UniProtKB/TrEMBL annotation:
GO biological process: one example: methylation
Protein keywords: Methyltransferase, S-adenosyl-L-methionine, Transferase
PANTHER family named among the record's database cross-references: CATECHOL O-METHYLTRANSFERASE 1-RELATED (PTHR43836)
Protein name, as recorded: O-methyltransferase
Upper taxonomic lineage: Bacteria, Bacillati, Actinomycetota, Actinomycetes, Mycobacteriales
Species of provenance: Gordonia desulfuricans
Length: 276
């Protein structure tokens, strides 16, 4: 029975590969990703070298200094080569629109991964704006920097290796080395460990980096889900936050629905609890 199921799955995957990989769930790279979820959760890499392979692919196939072409090539890699968990092209347009509407000068991204969303942010933000991106994995940070430099936006993005919950090390670096101060942050993008969305937002609020009108965009609120963060925004709707809910799909497929929240901070009464 089990061997029969495996054989059918192998046939389905083989047929899908021959058809140009139209169904993401029937791709070997997606199945490899699913089996590596524990490794992914611990390291933010799948473990088969696909993140480095992405950088190699971008440098080989994207025109140097062309951010649009770098984005195109990454999407092509994710659709036809190896599945990756960046925000993707469909939800990426929502991020583009939010950045363009906010016209921010100082931006913070939490969760760099391979640098795809930072490319989209850099393309949409004003020419004199600066994006800081926090990444847990130093290898991912190097991959992202290589891609940004090839795309010609490396000087506008600063990657910081760490997490906001690492005993104040990263927060101290942002304050002292990168001059983060009360009211400095115009735009925040959350796309990292979903259970850390709300604690990290609280940390940012405690340091008063947001100001009235700051915009916070959160990916994957529907899938795999960030229920505590969603509930927080619902509870504070109309008082401390105004939130737009964008219905979309998980990256690089049309079967799994996802939700992106775009929240504007009103800066009125939020008093977040202490977070160590």
């Amino acid at each position: 029975m089990v061997l029969g199921v495996v054989a059918l799955l192998a046939l389905a995957v083989g047929a899908n590969e021959c058809a140009g990989k139209p169904v993401v769930f029937l791709r070997w790279s997606f199945l490899r990703f699913v089996f590596a979820l524990n490794h992914m959760g611990a390291t933010w890499q799948v473990g088969d070298g696909r993140e480095k392979a992405l950088a190699d692919y971008v440098c080989a196939h994207a025109r140097p200094g062309d951010v649009d072409d770098a984005i195109r090539v990454i999407d092509d890699f994710c659709y036809h080569k190896k599945y990756l968990i960046n925000i993707g092209d469909e939800k990426g347009q929502l991020l583009d629109d939010a950045v363009a509407a906010a016209r921010p000068q100082r931006l913070l991204e939490v969760g760099t991964y391979c640098g795809y969303s930072a490319l989209r942010i850099a393309r949409a933000m004003p020419p004199d704006a600066r994006l800081h991106s926090i990444e847990f994995n130093a290898a991912n940070a190097r991959i992202a920097q290589r891609i940004w430099d090839h795309a010609g936006v490396g000087e506008r993005i600063v990657v910081v290796v760490g997490t906001l919950g690492d005993d104040d090390k990263t927060i101290k670096a942002l304050r002292e080395e990168h001059r983060f101060s009360p009211g400095c942050l115009d735009f925040l993008f959350l796309d990292h460990e979903k259970s850390e969305y709300l604690p990290d937002l609280h940390r940012i609020l405690q340091h008063r980096w947001l100001h009235p009108g700051s915009v916070v965009v959160a990916d994957n609120v529907g899938y795999p889900g960030a229920p505590e963060y969603r509930n927080f925004m619902q509870q504070h709707e109309g008082h401390d936050w105004l939130t737009r809910t964008h219905r979309s799909h998980a990256e690089y497929q049309k079967l799994i629905p996802d939700t992106v929240l775009e929240s504007t901070y009103l800066g009125q009464t939020t008093q977040p609890p202490h977070v160590d």
